[in-house]
Write a structure and sequence with these properties.
The structure holds 2 protein chains of 2 kinds. By secondary structure, chain A is an alpha/beta fold. Chain A has one domain (6-272): NAD(P)-binding Rossmann-like Domain (Rossmann fold, 3-Layer(aba) Sandwich), CATH 3.40.50. Chain A has 10 helices and 9 strands. A 7-stranded parallel β-sheet of chain A has the order 3-2-1-4-6-7-9, with helices on both faces. A two-stranded parallel sheet of chain A has the order 5-8. Chain A is globular, with a radius of gyration of 19 Å. By secondary structure, chain B is an alpha/beta fold. Chain B has a single domain, classed as Rossmann fold, CATH 3.40.50. Chain B is built from 8 helices and 7 strands, in the order E-H-E-H-E-H-E-H-E-H-E-H-H-H-E. In chain B, strands 3-2-1-4-5-6-7 form a 7-stranded parallel β-sheet, sandwiched between helices. In chain B, helix 2 (42-54) links the parallel strand 2 (34-39) and strand 3. In chain B, helix 1 runs parallel beside helix 2, helix 3 runs parallel beside helix 4 (107-133) and helix 4 (107-133) packs parallel to helix 5 (156-176). The longest helix of chain B is centred in the middle third of the chain and has 27 residues, at 107-133. Chain B is globular, with a radius of gyration of 17 Å. Classes of the chains: A alpha/beta, B alpha/beta.
Chain lengths: 273, 253
């Protein structure tokens, strides 16, 4: 019997998913790296790495999720599932179309939920297995004009915390990774926006704070966050949250120390003076 | 594909989770083919996949409804991407709900049966043929039924869809005969499949009645249909296209 472990990762065409696929491969794992179709060049690059199999998967397609899980399990079983696919969206709620809202919920929230549901029987049968989910520091705090993003990320936090109780009974782990800012193409490639004229001045002010070079200077690289993902996958600890990156750690510590209400008032002052 | 063996051949079987589709997928795998299995739900497909892997074969699963164009495309893409080519296809997925007679059948049921059985077969071929042409041709078997050879009351859309599959297959066979694509049809009679068991449990005709309508006086196994499918896709049937081959123990005699 081989002791080589297998990780199944979603959203590996860029950012944290891609960095994690490379790191797990370098550590000798078998990696099932999934991404939407049409990323042929990125796919070829990944599939050249040792132990990496690329499978097509759009996490908003329930049938494709089922196919991917059946095929992944048949490739020799899976030990860790890393629900990572997701993107950001900013703008006042009034400026977002219903399609934008539904797409965000389908990708960030329902995608991870459906994949988890599809893998649970496999893990339950093995009485082992671990789910990791990229939420975000945005699942633990909120900033203005990112309501739908936070809705999905806070949703994932609640989902995972509840599922952790449910799955522990069967020897299955459930952990969340909460990165802060990352030096990826998240704000360009993996980002959607909506505008509404009544909010333009306010939005510019907030985005000015968020994208301040001083703030962005504290961001981590995807490789640094991938190290935390790997640690969560291998440390055998009974721990739910892995807040990752200096900025995220500082922000979350500030929230815990200040308490919800006073933290919220502080954020309001920071953005609107 | 030489001498009826399928080593290095790649095929698609739709409705591969159960019954005739499952038997076809396993039969092709036993003959060395790599198979993409499609079907509506993952658990039966996983079972077929497991059976093939146990034999040392290789297969991939695509979950989805054959009447969806995206699924038809994904299934062919899986064959090309995973196994590099496409040589044969068995368009087998079908449903057979008891609908009542022509007056009682609802529009919803009519459309659902036509969509899966007839449109699904057409969509399958629409994407399979161009992939087969990339490597010089291939063979297609479409699953019809004895209902395309004689009448069965209370299944109007099923019968219409299966007569439609025969007509469509003959047209396609003629269209692509010179390009190296063969298209044939199998008309199974009373075969021991989950669909058949479902049909006799909901319909007016009993298992014994089907048996007595069959001169061979028995219900066949799915493997007996799969044997016809593998032969029709093999070089042994190299000069045969556009036929409807009944596999029905003489039921339509």
């Amino acid at each position: 019997m081989s002791t080589q472990k297998t990780v199944f990762i979603t959203g590996t065409s860029s950012g944290l998913g891609r960095a994690s696929a490379k790191l797990f491969s370098a550590k000798g794992w078998r990696v099932i790296a999934t991404m939407r179709g049409g990323d042929a060049q990125k796919e070829t690059e990944l599939s050249k790495l040792a132990g990496v199999t690329v499978l097509p998967l759009d996490v908003t397609d329930p049938a494709q999720i089922k196919s991917a899980v059946v095929n992944a399990v048949s490739l020799g079983g899976v030990d860790v599932v890393f629900n990572n696919a997701g993107y950001g969206m900013a703008g006042p709620l009034e400026g977002l179309t219903d399609e934008q809202i539904v797409r965000m919920v389908n990708t960030n929230l329902l995608g991870a939920i459906r994949i988890t549901k599809a893998f649970v029987p496999h893990f339950r049968e093995k009485k082992a297995g671990l789910f990791l989910t990229t939420t975000s520091i945005g699942g633990l705090i909120a900033v203005p004009f990112n309501s739908m993003y936070h809705a999905t990320k806070w949703g994932l936090e609640g989902f995972c915390e509840s599922m952790a109780f449910e799955l522990k009974r069967f020897g299955i782990g459930m952990k969340t990774i909460e990165p802060g800012g990352m030096k990826t193409d998240f704000f360009t490639r993996s980002f959607d926006t909506g505008r509404h004229e009544a909010y333009n001045g306010l939005v510019d002010r907030v985005m000015g704070v968020i994208t301040d070079p001083k703030t962005m200077g504290t961001y981590s690289t995807p490789d640094q966050i991938a190290e935390v993902v790997y640690e969560a996958a291998t440390d055998n600890k009974d721990q739910l949250r892995y807040v990752a990156g200096a900025d995220a750690k500082a922000t979350y510590a500030a929230r815990l120390q200040a308490g919800d209400e006073s933290f919220r008032k502080g954020m309001d002052r920071q953005f609107f003076g | 594909m030489s001498g009826g063996r399928f080593t290095d051949s790649v095929g698609i079987v739709t409705g591969a989770g159960k019954g005739i589709g499952q038997a076809c997928a396993i039969a092709f795998a036993k003959l060395g083919a790599k198979v993409v299995l499609s079907g509506q739900s993952e658990a039966p497909l996983a079972e077929t996949l497991g059976a093939i892997e146990k034999l040392g074969g290789r297969a991939r699963v695509v979950v989805g409804d054959v009447s969806s164009e995206g699924v038809a495309q994904d299934t062919v893409a899986a064959a090309l991407k995973e196994f590099g080519r496409l040589d044969f296809a068995v368009n087998n997925a079908g449903i057979s709900p008891l609908t009542g007679n022509t007056v009682d059948c609802t529009l919803e049921t009519w459309q659902r049966v036509i969509n899966v059985n007839l449109t699904g077969t057409w969509l399958g071929m629409k994407y399979q043929i161009p992939a087969m042409l990339q490597t010089g041709g291939g063979a297609i078997v479409n699953m019809a039924s004895v209902t395309a050879l004689r009448t069965f009351e209370s299944y109007p859309p099923y019968s219409a869809s299966k007569w439609g599959v025969v007509g469509l297959s003959k047209v396609t066979a003629k269209e692509f005969a010179s390009k190296g694509i063969r298209v044939n049809v199998i008309g199974p009679g009373a075969i021991d499949t989950p669909l058949f068991i479902d049909t006799i449990s909901t319909g007016a005709v009993s298992r014994d009645a089907y048996k007595s309508q069959t001169p061979m006086n028995r219900i066949a196994t799915s493997e007996e249909v799969a044997a016809a499918a593998t032969w029709l896709c093999s070089d042994g049937a190299s000069y045969i296209t556009g036929v409807l081959l009944p596999v029905e123990g003489g039921m339509t005699l």
